[in-house]
């Protein structure tokens, strides 16, 4: 039976005050959803008189889609770091009302942050959504990761989004909506959006499934990089069997010495088939079994209880282990 280690995540012991979190999607800097780097934007408010305490900070989300955004309307001053906020590049650039200047700077980000504190995402039903469907009169808003997860159409060339209700309008964009493999729009609901180059691919053309977790932060084969340290050392790259996101073996915590021959799943995609616990809520050193479908606790319980009489091995008894299901 193979023991399988979990993947990388931010250090749990890092002080809350030093953690940089996006003021829109509420994800950490090293997110798996393709939001790009965190940028600092000044806001037209006075600097807080006192440094924020950990209790004042909104609890940062992780790479589980269900934790993106804010469960309650966040207090704007709680998001302030000195006199501004940290926001992912794509979370800001795609927001309604934000403009790209001739100097490649983003303006009106402050207005987007303010509106996000009151706007609920159509997909996750949490606050912080600032990306609106491009169709006039449509009132659907999304976080950047949720826009992809929802199956919306995204155009990097135009920085516009079409919600699933209006996705048929993407055909009017011509080649921008074509699949890079079959050179046609085909089934628009099956398109995957690469957060690296902006090209689209039909999931069926790549022989994969367009699930929400795969859509969010998806990268095409040409753009795939480590989600932790970005480009380099492709020979040491692990690709998740479920969401297809990559990570170097040496970027894992704990690190791996070599690329495993068996299938590998990142922490976001690990779910115990017995207790239902997700990998993201367990420590990074937790061991997983049965192709990452059985957590360490359930494996220990399974190995100490008879599957016929349900009695434990206390007092010790001789339990035979099945060579197939263990």
From TrEMBL:
GO terms for molecular function: histone H3K4 methyltransferase activity; transcription coactivator activity; zinc ion binding. One of its GO terms (biological process) is positive regulation of transcription by RNA polymerase II. Residues 53-167, 220-272 form the PHD-type domain. PROSITE patterns: EPHD, ZF_PHD_2, ZF_RING_2. Keywords: Metal-binding, Nucleus, Repeat, Transcription, Transcription regulation, Zinc, Zinc-finger. One of its GO terms (cellular component) is MLL3/4 complex. The keyword Transferase does not apply. It comes from the Eukaryota. Pfam families: PHD, zf-HC5HC2H. SUPFAM superfamilies: FYVE/PHD zinc finger. It is found in: Nucleus. This is PHD-type domain-containing protein. It comes from Oryzias melastigma. The lineage of its organism: Eukaryota, Metazoa, Chordata, Craniata, Vertebrata.
């Amino acid at each position: 039976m193979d023991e399988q280690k979990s993947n990388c995540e931010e250090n749990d012991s890092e002080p809350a005050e030093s953690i940089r979190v996006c003021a829109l999607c509420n994800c950490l800097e090293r997110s798996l959803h393709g939001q790009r780097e965190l940028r600092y934007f000044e806001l037209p408010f006075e600097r807080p008189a006192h440094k924020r305490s950990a209790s004042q900070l909104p609890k940062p989300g992780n790479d589980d889609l269900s934790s993106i955004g804010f469960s309650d309307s966040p207090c704007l001053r709680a998001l302030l770091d000195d006199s501004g906020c940290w926001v992912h590049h794509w979370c800001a650039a795609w927001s309604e009302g934000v403009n790209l200047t001739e100097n490649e700077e983003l303006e009106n980000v402050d207005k987007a942050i303010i509106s996000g504190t009151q706007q609920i995402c159509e997909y996750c039903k949490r606050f912080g959504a600032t990306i609106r469907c491009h169709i006039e009169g449509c009132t659907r808003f999304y976080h950047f990761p949720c826009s992809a997860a929802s199956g919306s159409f995204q155009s990097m060339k135009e920085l516009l989004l079409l919600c699933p209700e209006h996705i048929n309008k993407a055909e009017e964009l011509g080649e921008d909506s074509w699949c890079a493999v079959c050179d046609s729009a085909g089934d628009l609901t099956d398109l995957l959006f690469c957060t690296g180059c902006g090209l689209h691919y039909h999931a069926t053309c790549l022989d994969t499934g367009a699930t929400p977790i795969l859509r969010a932060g998806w990268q095409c084969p040409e753009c795939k990089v480590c989600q932790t340290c970005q480009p380099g050392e492709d020979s040491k790259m692990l690709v998740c069997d479920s969401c297809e996101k990559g990570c170097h073996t040496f970027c894992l915590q704990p690190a791996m010495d070599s690329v495993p021959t068996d299938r590998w799943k990142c922490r976001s995609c690990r779910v115990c088939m017995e207790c239902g616990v997700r990998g993201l809520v367990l420590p990074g050193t937790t061991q997983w079994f049965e192709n990452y479908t059985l957590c360490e606790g359930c494996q220990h319980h399974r190995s100490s209880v008879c599957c016929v009489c349900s009695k434990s091995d206390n007092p010790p008894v001789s339990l035979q282990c099945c060579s197939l299901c263990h």
